[in-house]
Amino acid sequence: MIIGSICNIAMGLTLPFLGLALSLTLFAMMIEDLEEMREAVNAYVLYFIYIAIVCFFGNFFSKLSFMFVGENITLNMRKETYFKILSKHIGWHDNRENASGILTGVLAKDAAALNGASLEGLSIIIESIAAISAGLVAGFLLSW
């Protein structure tokens, strides 16, 4: 989960750098000398490529690490629920609401819903906080 959080922070940091690279590229296009402009724009285009590489690997490793954490949470949740069901008194299983089909559905649905609700939201929150923080810092530094 630490690797996923670091990758989400890197993904959030790419957005302000993307804006900076875009503005530098636009300013480089205002250079009068064509050859000098081409060299400057080519240098800034490399920044876009670097940012795309960081986005690709950051997104991949973020999704991968949060997927492993989510699968472990789901597996542990299902194991605990299954062992609790097995430790119930035998008469508990005779009730209609405790039928085997209903309990199997509970094992399948509830644990997966917990996985999707907790980790996907967490990764978006981490990425958003990093993007907002980096944008504010860059805005304050560049405006003074």
Model description:
This protein is mostly helical and 144 residues long. α1 packs antiparallel against α2, α1 runs parallel beside α3 and α2 runs antiparallel to α3. It contains 3 helices and no strands. Helix content is 86%, strand content 0%. The model has no long low-confidence stretch (mean pLDDT 86).
Topology:
Elements (H helix, E strand, L loop, with lengths): L1 H27 L5 H53 L13 H44 L1
Helix pairs in contact: 1-2, 1-3, 2-3
* Quaternary organisation of the protein chains: single chain
Compute the number of strand runs: 0
Q: Structural class, from secondary structure content? A: mainly alpha
- Global shape: rod-shaped
Taking Cα atoms only, what radius of gyration do you get, to the nearest Å?
A: 25 Å
Number of helices: 3
The poorly predicted ranges are none
Name the beta content range.
Answer: under 5%
Query: What's the CATH topology name?
Result: ABC transporter transmembrane region fold
Order of helices and strands: HHH
The largest sheet, given as strand count, sense and whether it forms a barrel, is: none
Annotated CATH homologous superfamily = ABC transporter type 1, transmembrane domain
Number of domains: 1
